[in-house]
Design a protein that fits this description.
The chain has 562 residues and is α/β, with parallel strands linked by helices. Among the domains are: 50-202, Rossmann fold, CATH 3.40.50; 456-561, 2-Layer Sandwich (GMP Synthetase, Chain A, domain 3), CATH 3.30.300. It is built from 17 helices and 26 strands. Helix 13 links the parallel strand 12 (326-329) and strand 13. Helix 2 (50-67) crosses helix 3 (83-94) and helix 9 crosses helix 10. The N and C termini lie far apart (54 Å).
């Protein structure tokens, strides 16, 4: 099928792009050369220029080399959003290493598994997470541990107050003396040469491993090349057609360990010399709002739960949110009501996009200033091909309007899963990435995700897509957040259950929610049960963990039957 989506591009967006042949880390050198005094990061009101960031990256790369890190070695980064993350990420790349980023919420077994699987021999870790690394270290390939305190790039007064009032309580004060091959980051930087030994890196060389459950649920390292990551940052810069170099401020609340934060916040910012407004805790909405009001971000890549929290923030009219100009929402479906309310509050353009870690991650988005078809993920990005194939064999392309599996081909698609050839063969077939998402395409080339292949609810022989039901629930005036899942039913096989968080101060009965859904969706899709909760289980990025709710239901059934 022809690329019918190209007719839906905004005029300034090229159909195909030229990608710099340099390695990803060289984008930082280029921005520092062109805009040395431009602000690279803002962190708790402390600012760092591009010249300073580049200097610290050089020193960290040189320090790693001094310790024996060679091209292709894996360097783990286990940090929240802070300047040290950017220093560690680009420094490791500049030393020729492969970055392995860690979720800050990981427990010890998860940290141990990822260290073993990646073979990382070096880790840069936040001091409050150091006890976890210390606990598992003997069971992993780790040879050297570099520890950094969150306060290291705080402004002087905030740093002093943190040291006196919070450091010990938060678990940031750690003693590493006597631990072999364990260093403080500042000592590494101070003792390292000013410049690293240059390493020859090609676009096809691996830049990072991003661990993901992917389409099968087993944690796997998506192996992304320099070109994969570079192409996605460049495409993002061209998709937001009015980006100006060294003039944008990117609200960086999505964790940088995550593929979406890595590309749309960090790599995009470095590529166009934008300022990263770093938010260390994405769940601390009051802190985020204060930063928005004070530092006036222009771009806000986010996930739906962030926009929900933003929309419902108390006294939001007291905050200046009008600097925000463009937002691309990813990681989960964006409810229509959330999108409309956010745009009304800010005047910004909020469009839904789509991606997955295996694609660096972005593959689709609605045009930011063009035709935004609410409820769709938009059209494929430049140089990206997408098609819908049948669910049975995955080999037959389906016509416009028919539902099947979404598959992707493009420069952002991963090399494969790290040391997992069988899983790679399942997901990558003839150069196409099989996403595991069920979708359809319209006559203008806009794609709509119907649901995850594994999240379909099959009730009485009917296929029910959770998103259809969730869109209705979000229209209820009392609903703050909602998710639906299929739970076992002796008669229908599965039945629809809704999990609802009400807005502050509201109350509702189960029957009220069920009645609200009637007449708005087919009878067989209407929830048969509603559970009101104080909160929904989420990842650190804010994606609602539907599967965790299903597991809870299964455990309840097991307890009843035993």
């Amino acid at each position: 099928m022809d690329k019918i989506w190209l007719k839906s591009y905004e005029p300034p967006v090229p159909h195909s792009l030229q990608y710099p042949s340099r390695p990803l880390h060289a984008n930082l050198e280029e921005s520092a050369r062109k805009y040395p005094d431009a602000t690279a990061t803002i962190f708790l009101n402390g600012k760092m220029s591009y010249a300073k960031l580049n200097e610290l990256v050089d020193r960290f790369a040189a320090g790693l080399q001094q310790m024996g890190v060679k091209k292709g070695d894996r360097v783990a980064i286990y940090l929240a959003n802070c300047p040290q993350f950017v220093i560690g990420y680009y420094g490791a790349l500049r030393a020729g290493a492969i970055v392995v980023s860690f979720n800050p919420l990981y427990a010890a077994p998860e940290v141990e598994h990822q260290l073993k699987d990646s073979g990382a021999e070096t880790i840069l870790v936040m001091s409050r997470f150091y006890p976890i690394v210390k606990k598992v270290r003997a069971n992993t390939p780790l040879k050297r541990v570099i520890v950094t305190n969150i306060k290291e790039y705080f402004p002087p007064v905030i740093k002093m107050l943190f040291t006196l009032a919070k450091e010990k309580h938060e678990g940031d004060r750690q003693d590493i003396s006597g631990e072999p091959n364990t260093y403080w980051l500042q000592d590494v930087l101070n003792e390292a040469p000013a410049k690293p030994t240059p390493v020859e890196i090609t676009p096809d060389d691996t830049a990072c491993l991003l661990y993901t459950g992917g389409t099968t649920g087993v944690p796997k390292g998506a192996e992304l090349s320099n070109l994969n990551a570079m192409s996605n940052a460049v495409a993002c810069r061209h998709w937001i057609t009015d980006i100006q170099e060294a003039k944008e401020v990117v609200l960086t609340a999505i964790p940088l360990y995550h593929s979406y934060g890595m590309t749309t916040c960090m790599n995009l910012s470095v590529y166009c010399a934008a300022t990263m407004l770093l938010i260390p805790n994405p769940r601390d909405i009051p802190d985020m709002m204060k930063n928005v009001s004070k530092h006036h971000p222009t771009l806000f890549p986010g996930v739906p739960t962030m926009y929900v929290a933003f929309n419902n923030f108390p006294d939001i009219e007291k905050f200046d949110v009008t600097s925000i100009r463009a937002c691309i929402s990813g990681a989960a479906g964006l409810p229509v009501q959330v999108q409309k309310q956010f745009q009304e509050l800010t005047g910004a353009k909020l469009v839904e996009g789509y991606g997955l870690s295996e694609a660096s991650p972005v593959t689709h988005a609605n045009p930011v200033y063009g035709v935004n078809k609410i409820g769709t993920i938009g059209v494929p990005w430049p140089d990206t091909e997408a098609k819908i194939v049948d669910l049975e064999t995955g080999k037959h392309e389906l016509p416009v309007g028919e539902v099947g599996e979404l598959i992707i081909h493009g420069p952002q698609v991963m090399k494969g899963y790290w040391h997992m050839p069988k899983e790679t063969e399942i997901t990558l077939r003839d150069g196409w990435l099989y996403t595991g998402d069920i979708a359809k395409m319209d006559e203008d080339g806009y794609f709509q995700i119907v649901d995850r292949k594994k999240d379909i609810i099959i009730a009485g022989g009917f296929n029910i897509y959770p998103r259809d039901v969730e869109e209705v629930l979000y229209k209820h005036p009392k609903v703050h957040e909602a998710v639906v899942a299929g739970i076992p039913d002796p008669y229908r096989g599965e039945t629809v259950k809704a999990y609802v968080v009400l807005k502050q101060g509201e109350s509702a009965e189960e029957s009220e929610i069920i009645e609200f859904c009637r007449g708005k969706i087919a009878k067989y899709k209407v929830p048969s049960a509603v559970e009101f909760r104080q909160s929904l289980p989420k990842t650190i990025v804010g994606k609602i963990l539907r599967r965790m709710l299903v597991e809870e239901e299964k455990k309840k059934l097991e307890q009843k039957s035993s």
